[in-house]
Amino acid sequence: MRDPSSFDDFYHGCAKRVTSHIHAMVGSLAEAEDIVQDAFTKAWQHWDKISHYADPEAWVRTVAFRIQVSRWRKASNRIRAHRRHGLPADEPALSPDYVAIIAALRKINVGQRQAIVLHYLVGLSIDEIADETGVAAGTVKARLSRGRQALATHLSDLAPQIRPIATEVSNDG
Amino acid sequence: MDEDFTTAIQRGARELADQTDLTPVRLIRAQGDQRRRRHAVAGVGLALIAATAIGTGLLRFSGPGQHSPVPPTMTPTTSQSASRPSSPTSPENSQSPDAEHTTTTPTPDASKPPASEHTSATDPKSLADCKMTQLKITLGQGGAGLGHSDLPLLFLNTGSTACRLHGYPEVKALDSHQHVMAQARQTPNGYMGGLVANSTPLPTVDLSPGQSASALVEASNFNIPDGSACAAYSSLQITAPNETRSINLSVTGGGCSDLQVHPIVPGNTGQSR
């Protein structure tokens, strides 16, 4: 019913990639790893069904986004004293441009951030994003446009060295 | 033109992926198997005030400023269900003293197979619909997607005889003055779950005493389709199928638009398998 070998192949094929996508949303690798682990655990729980989906990776990504929002809600309701992760020391060595982008993404609205990540990082079309997030294509377009503008502001604040990117992004929006 | 941005974010993400240490897949599977056994609800809890009213059709509203102690829904379900693996009950955190009723909730029999695995019809033809007098309706463990909230409604048979649930509950969202803000659309499934496919026949769920069924309610956290902010629902008014009496359950969370309810299914998650 649930075939472990097909799940293992699926996991090894896309878990790192999905982790990088979630990292772009949450800004902490340790947190992204926790979330992705949780999402793949759910995928295995329901693998009899999910293995037949056209795009199981999209399912895992969607679930991971969902977990992430739940955590934000929970975190906002309590002091994060017990938080294990998220210290700078946990973070991997990354290029300054990318670090600046991640930092800027953290400053924009969640819906806009999701649209930006799905479009520019995951590579989905506007219609695909609309399907995956359950909102109208027009909403996705608006979020992308506003997200780009907001991002441009923060990128130029944060990282003067990549202002050219910010300017281009801004012009596009 | 944002090729530079695309290049930078994609290259950075690849570098990060290369530095990721994956949890061994056997541990992932072991954890998934464990959760399957526990019938844990997917997701980490959305803050919900599970004001419960016990099957009397009693309207009980938990007004603004009245907050429950941190409800069990705030903790991950995996720990919640650890001690009672097959428990079909919801947390006993009824918070309004006068909502208490003399009806006692049957203690679940741990040896009984969980409701989510089967529907225990004893006499499939003659079972009566579950009435509010024998149902305890509570909110289950919610989750959230980006811009979406969901939570299962749990229907526990507190009576002494088996009864049947089929179809959609009626759900209305109320504001803090108990004015109706929205009536849920009855849809087979939505962004957060429900039936696997639109074409799946609506399940008929026969509940033995102590068993529960569920139906998923979901809503958007912003106005559809323009994406603007909206005022969150304050409570949900729920009516079981083929019933006229309803109860109100307070909710917190972002749901405020595009309210939907999916069909009643076996188990506690509102998700069919």
From TrEMBL, chain A:
Which Pfam family is one of those matched by this entry?
A: Sigma70_r4_2
InterPro entries from the xrefs? Answer: RNA_pol_sigma-70-like, RNA_pol_sigma-70_dom, RNA_pol_sigma70_r2, RNA_pol_sigma70_r4_t2, RNA_pol_sigma_r2, RNA_pol_sigma_r3/r4-like, WH-like_DNA-bd_sf
What domain of life does the UniProt record list for this protein's source? Answer: Bacteria
Keywords tagged on the record: DNA-binding, Sigma factor, Transcription, Transcription regulation
- The RNA polymerase sigma-70 region domain covers 12-76
Q: Where is the RNA polymerase sigma factor 70 region 4 type domain?
A: 100-151
Q: Could you say which protein family the record assigns here? A: Belongs to the sigma-70 factor family. ECF subfamily.
Instruction: Give the matching NCBIfam families.
Output: sigma70-ECF
Q: What is this protein called?
A: SigE family RNA polymerase sigma factor
Q: Which organism is it from?
A: Catenulispora yoronensis
Source species taxonomy: Bacteria, Bacillati, Actinomycetota, Actinomycetes, Catenulisporales
UniProtKB/TrEMBL annotation, chain B:
Start-end of Low complexity biased regions: 75-91
- Source domain of life is Bacteria
Q: Where is the composition biased (Polar residues)?
A: 92-108
The record's annotation in Pfam families points to: DUF4232
Answer yes or no on keyword Ion transport. Answer: no
Query: What range(s) does the DUF4232 domain occupy?
Result: 130-262
Keyword Aminoacyl-tRNA synthetase attached:
no
Keywords of this protein's UniProt record, alphabetized? Membrane, Transmembrane, Transmembrane helix
Q: Which residues cross the membrane?
A: 39-59
Disordered: region residues: 62-127
Q: What is this protein called?
A: DUF4232 domain-containing protein
- Organism of origin is Catenulispora yoronensis
